[in-house]
Amino acid sequence: MKFKAINKRKRIYEEVLDQLQAYLFKGAVTPGQKLPSERELARMFRVNRFSVREALTVLESNGLVQRKIGEGTFSTATSNFATTSLVDVVARNQHLIKEPMQVRRVIEPQLARLAAVNISDEQLAHMKVVLRQQSERLDNGLDIIDLDSEFHSCIARATKNTIFVGLLEALHDSLASTSIKSNQARGGGKAGYKRHQAIYAALERHDPDEAEEAMFEHMVEVERLLLDYHAERETKN
Which one of 123, 147, 181, 218 is least enclosed by Cβ atoms within 10 Å? Predict the structure, then answer.
């Protein structure tokens, strides 16, 4: 396995990402095969482990690798998985963050508005459980990325419109890394939880105007967190 030394003029993790992605797409490893450790990759690329870890995070959110605690990183890619997803574009270009977030700002507030009218008591009860789990995770210093996704999926399902459900799932899948980054931004998890509480309160009151406004404010804050995250990474690199 041979990798090139990194060009420091480009963001380091992007260079690592480029080479690892090309390596996986060529079919150099089979699905399920273990990749070198973060330490080994850092040595091969002559970079720090943080840059390797960030590249692996993007690959995992793209479904190209799977990381198992205590075991390592394993390939899940196949040789014909050579399409570039939106999440890859977003990860490489900070200025493009605003474009997908504009889509979310248009769609998700309207989903919250419709959900406020149609949501059932059972769905509200489930959302309350999700919020409690978010609170418990945050109290223990854990991330809430999967619970964040479930909260938004609950709202889509509450619209009673299967097209909206599929649309939101596709949107969130393509922007998986933005969810990771907004939660990793300083105070991102707690900020998101507070916004979720406000959205839930509006849904519980079946108030479409309030639900729409609360979701819009949430989307604006997510965009700010993403930009802050990238600005902080740029400073470190």
Answer: 123
Measure the CA–CA gap between 107 and 40, rounded to whole angstroms: 43
- Residue pair 16/55 in contact (Cβ under 8 Å)? The answer is yes
pLDDT tens by residue, 13-22: 888 888 888 7
Nearest alpha-carbon partner for 91 in 16, 169, 189, 6: 16
210 and 108 fall within a common domain: yes
In this prediction the pTM is: 0.58
Q: DSSP labels for 106-117? A: HHHHHHHHHHHH
Same structural domain for residues 192 and 115?
yes
> Whole domain around residue 184: which residue ranges?
87-236
Q: Is 3 left (phi over 0), alpha (psi -120 to 50) or beta?
A: beta
Question: Do 104 and 219 meet the contact criterion of CB atoms below 8 Å apart?
Answer: yes
Q: CA 15, CA 2: separation in Å to the nearest integer? A: 14
What CATH number should be reported for the domain holding residue 100? 1.20.120.530
Residue 196 class from Cβ within 10 Å (0-12 exposed, 13-18 middle, 19+ buried)? buried
Helices (H), the chain: 12-25, 38-45, 49-61, 86-92, 98-118, 121-139, 145-158, 162-174, 176-184, 188-204, 208-236
Q: Does residue 3 lie within any of the structural domains?
A: no
Q: How far is CA 65 from CA 20, 129, 146, 211, in A?
A: 10, 31, 17, 37
Tokens of 8: 């420091």
